[in-house]
Amino acid sequence: MRAHIYNITTGEIIRTVYCPDDQIESQFGAGESYIESDIGNDSTSYINNGVVADKPVQLSVIDKTSAAVDEAVTISLIPEHAFVSVESLQQEVIGGSCELTFDTPGEYQITVTCFPYLDKTFTVVIA
In what order do the strands lie in the sheet with 66-67? Predict the structure, then answer.
């Protein structure tokens, strides 16, 4: 059997397992359940009302993909309680937008993460 183990509160797929039917109970713990399915995965799907569903697309936008050192870059339309990550730094965003500045030239990946949405990554070049 192929089954998704998911968080019963949020519907987030934690992992996908392949096991005999009689061993499925040993594959999940407290706060988790499972659904048999041949479709979906933890990156692009979640469990919504007992059905495997596609994660919705994020509408976050960035105002520019290149900027000077110390020039602000703004991301807006961020879902409430999303996390914005740059390299190893991560910050929760409340209020729908964030402004970033960079003090070192280079290329940076900025990722907006908020379950159940798909992650959205922007590349910014700082000169």
Answer: 66-67, 120-126, 106-113, 82-86, 89-93
